[in-house]
């Protein structure tokens, strides 16, 4: 305010107005570039048949998925698409449920939540007996409701109640469809007859491969004509775009690798002389954190472990390459440890290291742990005290026991006590979780275990390497203002031109290029023929040329060519064969004119479409059962692999043990399985307005 007042006091309000106008213009321009008004307060991420999905609601679901799959390495970008598909599918189905009047009553919900197939089973099952503790689950739910904790109630609703209702509605809907399946008797009879029908034929065969591809060239006009005739197969609902691109590598050079080697090698003497490996690594830094405990050779996963385990205490190995780093290893210590241990313990928790939450005061935890240790020494039952006091849900109901576990599975103080002391040892052990009263119950297979410290430095590209690649990419752009210049320049500098097709507006990657969302945005902000500025993707700089904008509707010839070119070429070859190779009305005349021989196929099945030695030929197998060609040659037939002429020799019925009821149940089951595609059909029929690109 003082700045504005000063401007006013000086009478230069005009400048202030000009600045405001400039800011507004800038904001509007930025909003236009982002495909929306800067003053728009829209928070709708998608509309399904006019019903909005709010971004805030979508973000909540996305965060839940992130938390659920974080341990599996899934990232946010990967989950956005899957969560969006789930939400669209749910919206489509909920609209259908509403039309049909499908609901889940309170009683139904209660029966599911606390019934045999409860989603709460994992949390409320006795690990000893496998019994679902229904009363415990009900009490927990009632307690949460009474607490009026909005966050807890929200978590229960989104994590359990809403999914349970949704699954129940889906099951009801699916059951309606399944119960509607009906197979009439005539269909069963026909299926039985078809299954039992066999035919034998004589035939001539002129394969398409005998005609050169150069005689059957496929033009864009041919493809467009084919696409129009088969429009339903080539209809697109989404716009896609194609690009050509070249890359300039910014990966570490040989000089960069040498520099990384020298950096690690220069630490060799100091590392060897350092009395405290942990402190040294903390000082110089390492890509491999120091694990301040021991592993047996079987548990060491490092490269050159055979050489490492032969080092004496204080000995060094390296520098050597491991992955994308140079590593220097030092043997810190060697002990004889068991490879696995079983213990029982009681945890008195003082904090949760995962979220930093304090559970109880440290001194209180220590006093309680000491009291438990004294009580056990004087005869108190370990299992009873564990069930009453332990804060470890994984062991408290099992007498505090952890059955045989390997080295490194537990936090270091707990791990070291269990492996470094003899069976029968008991003690209070402090960890980040709190105080554990631990008793060692058993140990197996003692063997040498090693404590090894690693100084690891990544092989990274220098600024010179990165600048060289960036400069080369920028120079390429400056000399490639048109698509022709782009391709000519790439040829001149021997850069391969790569392609990526079917890029969608909400994609987060292009082809094999990961994390290219900014490039996808650029592709959709520009037009055919535009060339991008260098875009850094991983260890390379990409320069892209937009080669096609494929609008929704029928596929263009360029898009459809990979799918239909072979089909159209075979159609043209068939016409060449029909016009130039096949003459006569009998098989003998046709064979002579086409330079082929008469062959025979026996036991062709109406239920299949395979001809031995040739492949899948449904037209030919179908014609074999045509009574009009029994005993005489058919007209030439263009099949999948060549042109045929056939003469029917016989049609018969084979013996079969298949019962009518078995066939009927098979047909019913096939149609029931088909009902699961109903969601796909509903989604295809829905009007979906995808606005994700405005937010992500």
Q: Average pLDDT value?
A: 88
How much strand? 15-25%
Low-confidence stretches: 1-40
Record field, number of beta strands: 23
Judging by the overall fold, what is the CATH architecture of the domain at 257-458?
A: Roll
Question: Which CATH class of the domain at 257-458 is shown?
Answer: Alpha Beta
State the end-to-end distance.
35 Å
- Morphology: extended
Taking Cα atoms only, what radius of gyration do you get, to the nearest Å? 37 Å
CATH-assigned fold name of the domain at 257-458: Chitinase A, domain 3
Fraction of residues in helices?
A: 40-55%
- Mind describing the biggest β-sheet? 6 strands, antiparallel
Class derived from helix and strand content: alpha+beta
Helix count? 24
What is this structure, in a nutshell?
With about 700 residues, the chain is of the alpha+beta class. Helix 4 (about 75-100) packs across helix 7 (about 150-180), helix 8 packs across helix 23 (about 660-675) and helix 9 packs across helix 20 (about 555-580). The model is unreliable at about 1-40 (pLDDT under 50).
